[in-house]
Amino acid sequence: MSQNESVQMIQPPAEFVRKATISGMAAYQALCDEAASDYTGYWARLAREHVNWKQPFTQILDESKAPFFKWFADGKLNVSYNCLDRNIEAGLGDKVAIISETDDGQVRRVTYRELLAKVNQLANGMRARGIKKGDRVIIYMAMGIEGVVAMQACARIGAIHSVVFGGFSAQSVRDRINDAGAVAVITTDEQCRGGKKLPLKPAVDDGIALGGCESIKTVIVNKRTGGHCPMLAGRDLWWDDVIAGQSDVCEPEWVDAEHPLFLLYTSGSTGKPKGVQHSTGGYLLHAVLTMKWTFDLKPDDIFWCTADIGWVTGHTYVTYGPLACGGTQMVFEGVPVYPDAGRFWKMIQDHKITIFYTAPTAIRSLIKASDTNPATAPSNYDLSSLRLLGTVGEPINPAAWMWYYESVGGSRCPIVDTFWQTETGGHMITPLPGVTPMVPGSCTLPFPGIQATVVDETGTELDWGKGGLLVVTKPWPSMIRNIWNDADRFKRSYYPDDFNGKYYLAGDGSVRDVHSGYFTITGRIDDVLNVSGHRMGTMEIESALVSHPMVAEAAVVGRPDDLTGEAICAFVVLKGARPVGEAAKKMIKELQDHVAKEIGPIAKPKDIRFGENLPKTRSGKIMRRLLRSLAKGDTVAQDVSTLENPAILEQLRGN
Ligand code: WT7
């Protein structure tokens, strides 16, 4: 998007605006003004109106230990009460809470009353095993009703869950158990994705066998397929046995607003993934507000967020947000291209989905699929139930945005391009669907109350039109509270001294449009890659590579990819001779499998190149900028005069 000309804005459809919860710029501005004139009063008002408190708070924002901020600290509440009981008390007991569809197309529905009973039985069963408030519980499960039940059951008893995406390896499970000091794992025998059965419980066993998991006393296994699943007596229990005979009534554990609701491990630029710690009260508030304002959720909506519960999107917009608002939502076990690339459209048609939220990568792959096989195109399906579309996880290119708008939304549905992060808990910069004129590729303006801006390296605010670092200038209720076991890393990552600890540093570059002030995200400014909307640290992949006995040194960079946004490209120096031809091919496959084993298949480098060395400066620093150019296939026009060993560039250029 050119910063010098005014861009074409797409107005929210009048029909939508008429019924929208926040309808029009005046209403948006009024909220922003309220926050500007009385920041803490604004959040306190919303927290009183949108969350049920067992004990009302009197404190709002506590900055005394900044940047370890506290919100509503003397209030007490329970998230599962807010998601389940309060809806039933409001007369929604027989409303469908979740419609689930399995990979092979089986549909189940649970009402709020049924869901509460399931949560309470599991919560009671967990208590019977001695699991209590503050204990950490790893959840490594298939997408389905039980995954949501497991998370809600933890919230019910004040246990802190840490969900591990089912696509991560045994080693990753082990690392998270170990870092979190978890006492229990809740898992599934096997998950089904794209017609394949993928073992989960066996990976838990393999992870624990790697050592350092002595804290685990209980493994609860939900039976999904009935496949091969060895059980260890005394430690492993079938889910059905855990809930057998348990009451469907369970008094919630009333916790402080600052009690950690969950940890979620995510990649940073250095070291192992970090355990992002979220709060109870502030987090829940933002989940509710964004459901109501960004998604305009109404009682008759059927909401579908396609994210897995292993990601933060699946926490806020599957497990917590929709339920806390008494909504009906779809939960899907499978993948968008199975049995064919019309799966999403068929499900929207079958279940009359009204609000649909997915990732740009999925959109791009479905565009490609419908070009090659027109029978899977959205035009073959009745998508007239849709009224709002959303996207998240990575920048969406304008062409994909237009296709989503026209071919999926029939030019009738606003698109909310929601920028946020694991650390932010919920949407930060996003259009509101009844308010904000849209610009394809821009996440537009901050959510009411969020104070975002763009600064240079010294922390000086930049004029619109100038690219810089995205920061948030004031603490907000759903923000990350800490990194588990690593408060220093929390400070260094998000409140660096460069800005006197004043601003939250998102880790993304951004530029604001000169005319509208709209934000566009220009990508990560650290060594974090975004592959298909999945966040991967380059250092993490490098450590996985060098843990292979044949690898002497490795450097990983991203390169632009039409489908996945970024692709992982690894430059590797082996111990011994540099392989060529068939030997190189064999080694590439071996290293890809090794990374899949260490981290998970999503971290496999797409491109691996071997050199006798890596390009380094005379002081021995790997020249990553150069590697990025090589990865892209650019002719290296950069100044290589500081390069110690220019000859190896030829080897690393690839084919
Ligand atoms: C990173 C956060 C937030 C849930 C999923 C990802 C990128 C996210 C957008 C967007 C451009 C986006 C950023 C961010 N990102 N949403 N709408 N436009 N970029 O959560 O794994 O914590 O990744 O995803 O780079 O920092 P995450």
Question: Can you describe this structure in just a few lines?
Answer:
By secondary structure, the protein is an alpha/beta fold.
How is the secondary structure organized here?
Elements: H1 14-19, H2 25-37, H3 39-50, E1 61-62, E2 70-71, E3 76-77, H4 79-92, E4 96-101, E5 107-111, H5 112-128, E6 136-140, H6 145-157, E7 160-163, H7 170-180, E8 184-188, E9 190-193, E10 196-199, H8 201-209, E11 218-222, E12 236-238, H9 239-243, E13 255-256, E14 262-266, E15 274-278, H10 281-293, E16 302-305, H11 312-324, E17 328-332, H12 343-351, E18 355-358, H13 360-372, E19 388-392, H14 398-408, E20 415-418, E21 452-455, E22 468-472, E23 482-483, H15 487-494, E24 504-512, E25 519-524, E26 528-531, E27 534-537, H16 538-546, E28 551-561, E29 565-574, H17 581-598, E30 607-610, H18 624-632, H19 648-652
Bound molecules: 5'-O-[(S)-butoxy(hydroxy)phosphoryl]adenosine.
Overview of the molecule:
The protein is of the alpha/beta class and 655 residues long. Helices cover 32% and strands 21% of the residues. The strands form 9 sheets. Strands 5-4-17-16-18-19-20 form a 7-stranded mixed β-sheet, with helices on both faces. Strands 7-6-8-11-12 form a 5-stranded parallel β-sheet, sandwiched between helices. Helix 4 (79-92) packs antiparallel against helix 5 and helix 7 crosses helix 8 (201-209). The model is unreliable at 1-5 (pLDDT under 50). The structure holds 5'-O-[(S)-butoxy(hydroxy)phosphoryl]adenosine. The site of 5'-O-[(S)-butoxy(hydroxy)phosphoryl]adenosine has 22 residues, from helix 11, strand 20, strand 24 and strand 25.
